[in-house]
Design goal:
The protein is an alpha/beta fold. It has two helices and 14 strands. The N and C termini lie far apart (42 Å).
């Protein structure tokens, strides 16, 4: 298991230094315009990306930071830092107390990170996408019910006719954000 993690980090590190795109899950991904994407995921329709769980909110977060706020595990929420304050994306509490027992409580070094799209960055984060003109394409599903066991902190894009939206899972419930 540890060798697999090291291999993934090495591949991500190589990709970042080469300023290329990273596709997880298959060779094709989902984006039609590959030149605008740094990170994307296979179109498996049943998986999502899991945000980092934090026991303490960062004191100097970078604008655009997304995380699962587990400061109080009985009231877990997905949060986004907009540059001045934390915005709640869950709209409701999730109780992840039992899940937190399996999460490490060891604090990592703030300099330990994977950077995709640049060689260095001033942004704080475990995985940092650094680009002025490229983005991440979230895992795409047609329905969150297709995900057999969603994990707390999971995020997907629901591509359903009449219901296209961002979905986040706080450990108990899905919350949905529709484009405005």
């Amino acid at each position: 298991m540890k060798i697999g993690k090291i291999l993934i980090l090495a591949l991500l590190g190589f990709s970042a230094s080469a300023f290329s795109q990273v596709i997880m899950g298959d060779a094709a991904g989902t984006a039609t315009n590959k030149s605008s994407v740094l990170l994307e995921f296979a179109n498996t329709n049943n998986k999502g990306i899991i945000l980092p769980y934090v026991r303490t909110l960062p004191t100097s977060p970078t604008q655009g930071t997304l995380l699962l706020d587990a400061v109080n595990p009985a009231q877990a929420r997905i949060r986004y830092y907009n540059g001045t304050s934390w915005t709640d994306l869950s709209g409701q509490n999730g109780n992840i107390t039992s899940v937190m027992a399996t999460q490490t409580s060891t604090a990592e070094s703030v300099s330990d990170k994977v950077i995709i799209g640049a060689i260095t960055t001033t942004a704080n984060g475990a995985v940092v996408l650094e680009s002025a003109n490229r983005a991440m394409v979230l895992p795409i599903v047609t329905d969150v019910n297709n995900i057999p066991s969603p994990s707390p902190g999971m995020m997907v894009y629901v591509n359903k006719s009449g219901a296209k939206r961002l979905a986040v899972f706080n450990g108990e419930r899905w919350s949905f954000w529709a484009p405005q």
